[in-house]
Design a protein that fits this description.
2 copies of one chain form a homodimer. Chain A is an alpha/beta fold. Chain A has helices at about 15-25, 55-60, 80-95; strands spanning about 5-10, 40, 45-50, 70-75, 95-105, 110-115, 120-125.
Chain lengths: ~150, ~150
């Protein structure tokens, strides 16, 4: 299997609330193709879906736990520590809740976590070892710094 | 916040087992910068991390539930239905467990789910509405087909 992940899907109980967080709160644009049970967002090279937990459960043929916190996180990387602070404040204004406020972290970066509407964890981080390209793509360094 | 997700982090209890699944099983290459608690993989435009659940819990300052199934899924998109079957078989050989075998699904594609070592859900799918570029990048269609 070629080395890629095409889609990240977040199971949500209230799609509208999570959708509003990304669209009204963060200013993201939903791609066509969604409906009242699913919403898609173009990312750099991949895509994000918000999907009704009930529908995902039906697709999987099993019940899904309501507790989603902590099994998986997604991260939004900034270009500077200042941009982390700005983005963190923006996320709170958009309806996210504080989990860990941005701080210098052991791996040499600057990072905080919020819980977004629906309960998923979003890290907002600056990693000086992982520069972002103009389009926001991340390229992991070839050498062996103390990245994290 | 610019529209992107930089990093997907899977919390795992046995990093070595999940690492072997991706590297020995699927043939993925780990990026430098990892250690016994974390492993990184370059994706198209973003990155994947496997991270010790205990360490993530420490970063977050809270306990994390051991049940990780179902709150979030990641998907690997193939270029054809045949490639789904091949990849699904490869994932099983690599140590994943059957959740839903590949089948024609309501949104017009062909998709199956496995549980990978560590319990996370991986969808393996062909979506005829979402062509992959040569490098594996997904671009969501501009029009309004019945994508999913």
């Amino acid at each position: 299997m070629e080395q890629r992940i095409s889609l990240i899907t977040l199971a949500v109980d209230d799609l509208e609330a999570t959708r509003r967080f990304f669209e009204d709160g963060l200013g993201w644009t939903q791609a066509p193709g969604g409906n009242e049970h699913i919403a898609f967002y173009q990312l750099t090279g991949s895509a994000l879906a918000l999907y009704s937990r009930a529908h995902l459960a039906k697709d999987l043929g099993r019940d899904l736990p309501a507790e989603t916190l902590g099994g998986m996180t997604i991260a939004w990387n900034a270009r500077s520590e200042e941009e982390v602070d700005t983005a963190y404040a923006e996320a709170l204004t958009a309806g996210a809740e504080v989990v860990v406020r941005p701080e210098k972290v052991f791996w040499g970066g600057y990072s905080g976590y919020v819980s977004i509407p629906g309960g998923h964890l979003l890290e907002i981080a600056y990693n000086p070892f992982w520069p972002l390209s103009a389009d926001g793509s991340i390229t992991l360094p070839p050498a062996d710094p103390e990245a994290g």
